[in-house]
Amino acid sequence: MSREHEADVPGGAALPGTLPDALRAELIAFRRGMHMHPELGNHEFRTTAALKARLEQAGLKPRVLDIGTGLICDIGIDGSGEPDGEVDGGRGMLALRADIDALPIPDTKSDCAYRSTVPDRAHACGHDVHTTVVLGAGLVLAELHRQGLLPHPVRLIFQPAEEVLPGGAPDAIESGVLDGVGRIIGVHCDPKVDAGRIGLRHGPITSACDRLEVSLDGAGGHTARPHLTTDLVTAAARVVTDVPSLVARRVDARSGLAVTWGRIESGHACNVIPQHAELSGTVRCLDLEAWRQAPDLVHEAIDEIANLYRAKSEINYIRGVPPVVNDPAVTELLHDAMTSRRGPYSVEDTEQSLGGEDFSWYLEHVPGAMARLGVRTPGERTTRDLHRGDFDADESAITVGVELFTAAALLDAIR
């Protein structure tokens, strides 16, 4: 991905849209306010209200989504809903997407002045940074529009409930957030990448993630006479051990389709074969086509094992999210936007993650790409991983994200 040249800028001049010091300080304060008041998916009322108020203060017209939280805001659109000035017909707006919800875990940072004030709630995945970046980019782009320097409309999307399977993106799409959108971009915090840099990848950058719940039932009895029962504990154990390998052998090994169990419960006494067992886990997949086949493959494998032991199976396969598959052209847009601001060494290649991200649902409708936003303080040896209570971000990443999105919006308009 890395190149030895910077993106071409019209006329050889630097792209406009530098983040003023006063706005930088305001954005850091906004992010800390979000961090102190985390809200779970579909309950982001305080966050939605704060975003709406700040965008309206900037003279914009945000609209709260039909689901009650989250909002969209168009820049470069007049009061009639039509673009100001001449727009390349049919190309659609560039959308900048942020997710606004937090996680149901405690904030364990002991020496942080802006740690969460809400018990068992924390912005431990960086959504407060994502949100602040899109807000900041929107404020910069709005000012450029007032100066006549924004040649193409841009939409801001502040999406709720990313952490709630199958994510808030499908509801947001149902609310019309992609109407008039031609491309979409987003970022995700990466604590393995230094602040000041981003990670990019053509093609899949995250994995599919589904949830699996299985119930097994049968005639129980005395452990002295398993031949007269449905030997349910053994059946459950075989489902746990055999189903992952059966499923993996029925797809191309390069698809990375993996069933992993996280819970198994059955029985209460050592000499009683129970009548009921429960299992739950996840199904992850690197490949989009294999993900589409996964439910049928998992059902078949579980039923085969259950039938061997005369157990009745009930399977609840809960669709999560497909992989985020970055569009090559939009990925190059992010690359060129970053190098135009920060130089050729500000972009690094990144691997496909086994984590899931509901940004993928947008890519079922429009081309787009997600970048990994570096949030590790350069030189820091300790990695504060995502989904941990001690996670935090180097706040200089906010400026980097704003510059990335602002430059992408300006470069997209001339391509």
| Overall tally of domains | 2
CATH topology of the largest domain: Aminopeptidase
Structural class: alpha/beta
Mean pLDDT: 92
Q: Do you know the CATH architecture of the largest domain?
A: 3-Layer(aba) Sandwich
- Indicate the low-confidence ranges by residue numbers: 1-13, 79-88
Estimate the strand proportion. Answer: 15-25%
Question: CATH first level of the largest domain: which class?
Answer: Alpha Beta
Biggest sheet details: 8 strands, mixed
Q: How many strand elements?
A: 16
Q: Looking at this structure, what is the CATH superfamily of the largest domain?
A: Zn peptidases
String of helices and strands: HHEEEHEHEEEEEHEEEHEEHEEH
State the end-to-end distance. Answer: 20 Å
- Amount of helix: 25-40%
Give the strand order of the largest sheet, numbering strands 1, 2, ... along the chain. 1-2-4-3-5-16-6-15
Count, helices: 8
> Rg, please?
24 Å
Question: Which term fits the overall shape?
Answer: elongated
Structure overview:
This protein has 415 residues and is of the alpha/beta class. The protein has two domains: 286 residues, Zn peptidases (Aminopeptidase, 3-Layer(aba) Sandwich); 114 residues, Alpha-Beta Plaits, CATH 3.30.70. Helices cover 30% and strands 23% of the residues. The chain is built from eight helices and 16 strands. The strands form four sheets. The protein has an eight-stranded mixed β-sheet, with helices on one face. It has a four-stranded antiparallel β-sheet with strand order 10-12-8-13, covered by helices on one side. Strand 3, helix 3 and strand 4 form a beta-alpha-beta unit. Helix 1 runs antiparallel to helix 3, helix 3 packs across helix 8 and helix 7 packs across helix 8.
